[in-house]
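Hey, quick one: can you model this chain's 3D structure?
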Amino acid sequence: MNIDPDITIVTVCFNAYAQLPDCIRSVYDQKQDGLHIEHLIVDGASTDGTPGYLEEQLQAGRIERYVSESDQGIYDAMNKAIRLARGRTIAFLNADDRFLPGAIRKLAAPILEGRVDYTFGGARKESGGQYLESWPPNINKAYIACPYCHQTLFCRTDIMREIGGFDDQTFRIAADCDFMCHLIDRHMRYEAFEEDLVAFSVDGASSNSPKAAADDMVLLLWKHWDVLMARARQEIAYAEFLTVDLVNKIRLLEVCGTEYGRSIDRCLQYIDSMWTDLEALGAWRKPRVYACVRKRYIRHLQLHGCLGRWGRFGLLWLSYRIQLDDNHRYKGDVVRSYTIRQYMRKIFAR
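Sure thing. Here's the predicted structure for all 350 residues.
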C-alpha cells in the first residue's frame, strides 16, 4: 500500500552534477529520524551527466523521484514540483545548499502536528564552502526583501497549491519573496526558528544577478504597495522605513542599471509613483527631500538612464544622510545592498 510521505523536499537543478552529492546526502541522512521524506529532484535537462547520476541515486534508494526535461526557468521548475509533490509538507533545497543536522524534523514537526501552516528559520551563508555569516529571520523585511532564507521555508503543500505557487510571470529572482508575502497577507500561522538550519551558497542565482534582483525588489514593492500603504497610513514609523528603503533601491537600481546596460525605466516609474504616495502621506520630516530626490535622481534617471559621477556621490551622501534614528523601531530592518566602500569603488570604476 502506498502511503503519502510526510514531507517532499524539492531540489531544482541544471548542470549541477558537482553540487548534488552534498545536497542529497543532507536529506538522506535525516531520513533516519523517523520521517517519511520524499526527495524529488527536478532537473532542467542537464548536459553534464546529472540525469545519469540521478538515475544511480534513484536505484540506490537515496532519492525517491526525479524528472529531467526542459523548463522555462527556476520558478517554472518549482511550480512543476508543486504539482508533482506527494508530501503533506513541501520545502525547496537548491542543489548547492544543504540541510544542517536535525533541520528537517525541527521545521516539519510544527506543521505535521497541526499547530502551524508554515515554518522558517535561520541560515548560514557560505561561499566556496566557507562560512561567511548567519542570516536570521526577520518578518519586518517582508515586502521589501526576503524576510528569511527560502531554503528554510516549510509549508503545507495544499496551501502552496491554493496560492498558486510562484509567480514566474512577474519575477525572475524574487518569486519566493512574493510567495512569503502571500502567506502573510492570508494570516497563515507560522513558527520561526532563530538558529541556522540550512547552509546556502551565496554564489547562487540572486547573488549572481544583482540587476535582476534590484528590478525584482522594486516589482515586489509595487505588487504589494496597497498592503504597505495601508500599514504606512496607520504607522508613520513604517512610512519612514519605506522612504529610506526606496532611496536605497534607487541607488541600487542606478548602479546595476549602469553596469548591466539595461533599461530601468519601468522600475523608476513605479518608484516615482510610490515616492509620490509617501510624500502625500508626509512620511518624512523634511518635505524638501522628496522634491530633491524626484528632480535630481528619479527624473534624471528616467531621462538619461544613469547618473554622472557627482550624481552618484550625491545619491550616496543622501542615502546615508537620510536614515532612521538609532532609536527608531525599524532601524535594524533597513536593507543595504552595498556598503559605502563597495559603492565608492563602483563610482570610481566608471
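One thing worth noting: DSSP finds 13 helices and nine strands in the chain.
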